[in-house]
Automatic annotation (TrEMBL):
This is Outer membrane beta-barrel protein. Keywords: Signal. It comes from Gaetbulibacter aestuarii. Residues 1-18 form the signal peptide. InterPro entries: BBP2, Porin_dom_sf. Pfam families: BBP2.
Length: 336
């Protein structure tokens, strides 16, 4: 009887342990953010805007809420990322800011220790910044990020080539055509990584609103224990026109709870009769209280050959077109 009882208890314990392991493979995470924004050099009620992605409202505004549910098995897994709010709508090109929107939804298979196949919709590999504000130091977004794709729908393969090298190859629908390819055309993507530095390539035909060809470098360096320098540079061409630019992201941690960082960006639209350009300077503080991040931010953009705005509307306090625009933003981001 003792042996039977001991075996029964062992079986129950083993079953509970296995169930616990299985439960631990399922995880839930996400974030919620909101902000207040006022223009320092233009009236808030005249429609002034930088025109870059997201955070384009004055007064109090909602960013987005996202919920990420993922399951990680021994060999296979799946991720579902749902977003709602204006930022989520802008990221998925959906005008409905109330209903849940699919930001990412993909399955993956770890074919071997160094090879993973991913099938579905996943956020872009191009650029330094990302859709979720919790993943960015600056709250507002750059011109480079705003000009490229946000997501891709297709198949990609990730290869680990050693301790420092990685390679990604992808076949997707054309730029931000996230559901289907109506034209029968497809895009190609590639990423070569080395010790946190990434060289990214993307190509589609450029037709039907496509992006064309883009080469992008994203990386950064820890110059000291408290000083980090992020770097992004890109060149895009679509039948003789497109954009190019570069951005630096120096960030200094002054304590465990507070950091301050600057985004300095130079951006040009090329290929037209004039080539408008923008110089953007964004100074952001980041104060962390448990899972809450509070970000005060001052942004100043100046333009050349783009009176009234590059992507947005630049005006002064008199409501007339201007070649510069400044704003103060206070954002709060909670991650879980």
């Amino acid at each position: 009887m003792k042996k039977i009882l001991t075996l029964s208890m062992l079986l129950v314990a083993t079953t509970l342990f296995a169930q616990e392991e299985e439960k631990s493979a399922l995880s839930v995470s996400g974030s919620v953010d909101a902000y207040y924004q006022t223009y320092l050099t233009a009236p808030d009620n005249e429609g002034a805007t930088f025109g870059t992605a997201f955070a384009g409202k004055s007064g109090f505004a909602l960013g987005m809420a996202n919920l990420i549910v993922s399951y990680e098995g021994e060999k296979v897994g799946a991720v579902l990322d749902l977003v709602t709010g204006p930022r989520g709508a802008g990221a998925t090109f959906n005008t409905d800011i109330v209903d849940g929107i699919v930001n990412q939804a993909y399955v993956y298979w770890n074919v071997s220790e160094g090879t993973t196949l991913t099938f579905g919709r996943w956020n872009t590999f191009l650029g330094y910044e990302v859709i979720a504000p919790a993943g960015n130091f600056n709250y507002s977004c750059s011109y480079l990020f705003s000009s490229g794709p946000f997501s891709h729908m297709g198949l990609k393969a990730d290869f680990t080539l050693g301790d420092d090298f990685s390679l990604m190859l992808a076949v997707t629908n054309p730029w931000d055509t996230n559901d289907v390819s109506f034209t029968g055309e497809y895009a190609l993507g590639a990423q070569l990584g080395y010790s946190g530095q990434f060289l990214n390539l993307y190509y589609d035909s450029g037709k039907h609103g496509g992006l064309g060809f883009e080469i992008d470098y994203t990386g950064g360096f820890d110059l000291t224990d408290s000083f980090y320098l992020g770097i992004n540079a890109a060149y895009n061409d679509n039948d003789g026109s497109g954009f190019y630019g570069a951005a630096l992201y120096p960030q200094i941690a002054t304590s465990d709870d507070f950091s301050i960082g600057l985004r300095g960006e130079y951006f040009v639209l090329h290929g037209g009769p004039v080539e408008p350009s923008a110089l953007g300077l964004t100074l952001t503080g980041s104060y962390t209280v448990e899972n809450l991040i509070i970000k005060p931010e001052i942004r100043l953009d100046s333009l050349t050959d783009a009176t009234g705005g590059l992507y947005g509307t630049f005006i002064n306090n008199d409501g007339v077109p201007s070649d510069s625009l400044a704003a103060f933003t206070l954002a709060a981001i909670y991650s879980f």
